[in-house]
Amino acid sequence: AEEVGKTVWFAAPSLTEAGRLAYHGPEVGPTAVPTFECVGLYWKIAGGGPDDTCNVRYRAKGQSDWHQAMALWFDPYDHQGSEENSLQYRGSIVGLKPGTTYEVELALEKTGTKRTFDFATQNDQFKIARTVALPVTQPEETLVIKQGGSEKDGYVLYTPAKGAKAVWDAQGKLRAHISIEADYVIVRGLTLKNAAVNGIELGDVNHIVVEQCDISGWGRVLEDGWGANLDAAVSSSSNKLKDVVVQDCYIHHPRSDSNSWMEKRAKGSFHPEGPQGIVFRKGQGGYIICRNRIDSDMDHMYNDSMGETANFGFAGFPNRDSDIYDNYVSHCWDDGLEIEGANMNVRVWGNYITITYGAIGAASTSLGPVYYFRNVYAASRKSIDTDDNGYRGHYLFKLGSEPKAAAFSQGRKYFIHNTTLQPPIDGQPDKPYGAQSGMALTSPTKRELNIVSRNNIIHLRRDKDAVVNDPQKSPTNDFDYDMYNGVLRGADGIEAHGIVAIPRYEQAPDGRLWLAPGSPGFDAALRIPNFNDDFTGNGPDMGAIETQSKQPKPATWPETFPSIAPTYDPAAPPTPAEAPAPVPTPAGD
């Protein structure tokens, strides 16, 4: 310590290229960590390294045909604090069926080393050990659940009696409606209103399911009139929390309100603080958050819909082996989804996000890989004001760690088949208010490594907005094969195969927007095994929605997508000769 602050001189230093790190220890794995519809794969093999690709094939047990998946990513870093994941092959298979046994083959391309093994996805039909009938009105005290099930016997289900409707109103008198302190517990079918702090609290537990619940009215209002930060409908601060399912819930209208980036808190910060839908602090992951609707109104805004605070490290939210999909998210003054931390075999897909400052916070991924695919972002807002500035939100993906946290930006990130829309402001059909940036590092000093983007439609409101903003121009980042308008700020050669165009849509029978035949991007996407296998026509389409898709629209999504406004620049409107061609309003919208 006494040397700190002194100057040290080195005589005649020299540098020798050591090559990229490879693993030379004993074999570890391979192992599989499945969810309902995906699996995370892990393998450390002597001689494994970034120059030897690990290919993946899979098939349902008993079937003859193999299917190709995306190759595993080799993590070439020596992670101080997560050594077990250094120099490891990792990756995911998506689009699997629940409760199904699969066979998977991992094969190194250069050495020919292979491993074949079985795994079974989780069953989404839960085994019930016994059922506890809950009262139809709120008990006088918080219901503390201390009796749960087991892996052998199954779950204990807490639900209203058959045919009964339970509406619990805590009237702001109870900290929470329910506190769960036992493993293998399901809470189903409750309407929960007006908890003082959090709706449902989870302790040091695992294998918890919260489903088909309607939760509203929670959260503290502080002296400055804004909400206490991170009060949530479903909340935990346990560092032992793991294996949690939150599905088919309606989470809405907290009691409190978050400030926007335009509104200063009493302590001097402009950063949004306030209620959230789901907060799991310090947990271990294994989360499945699906088919939920998380919304509100302009007077009861969220900070983020879900996340935590420890974003720069080897944990964070949702940490690892987690799926977040088919959710509807709106009314956030910061990120619609905040997916930051380890992000090791985390999959985020099929989410519809609107009326938020930014769509997805992805500002740190320390381990990865994390997969963001087939998400749709609609309206982006900066504040409650209705002037041009109030309707000027920000990013599709927020990226970047400051130099002091650079070790937590090394994990692989995939951005595949996502779409930004440009819905018009009500009453001003020529003014769009969708994303104002695509994949954006949000300051000149930030860095983010190992980004791969493919087949995204990044339709920005102005042609001078940044599709990619990568001020460090990292050679590890690979932005390509996207369709976009706007400018590129990154290393030379990015988007070498990109398409500079505005999409033309038609309305699908179920209300979604997909590319009209003949539109730029139609049948023009890069083929990516396991991520666009089910394309129609002559090739996959760019963006989140495949034209004539046979995949059903998630039940949480809007009945009809918004119409699309042309690009617009209030500071420097284009001359008629430069104006982009207007995009037709879909029939029936």
Q: Radius of gyration in whole Å, from Cα?
A: 24 Å
Number of helices: 0
Report the oligomer: single chain
Overall pLDDT, averaged?
94
The stretches of 5 or more residues where confidence is low (pLDDT under 50) are 572-589
Briefly note the structural class of the backbone. Answer: mainly beta
Strand content: 35-45%
How would you describe this structure to a colleague?
- The protein is an all-beta fold and 589 residues long.
- Helix content is 0%, strand content 36%.
- The chain contains no helices and 47 strands.
- The strands form seven sheets. It has a 16-stranded parallel β-sheet that branches.
- Strand 46 and strand 47 form a beta hairpin.
- It is globular and about 75 Å long.
- It starts with 27 loop residues before the first strand and ends in a 74-residue tail after the last strand.
- Mean pLDDT is 94; it is low at 572-589.
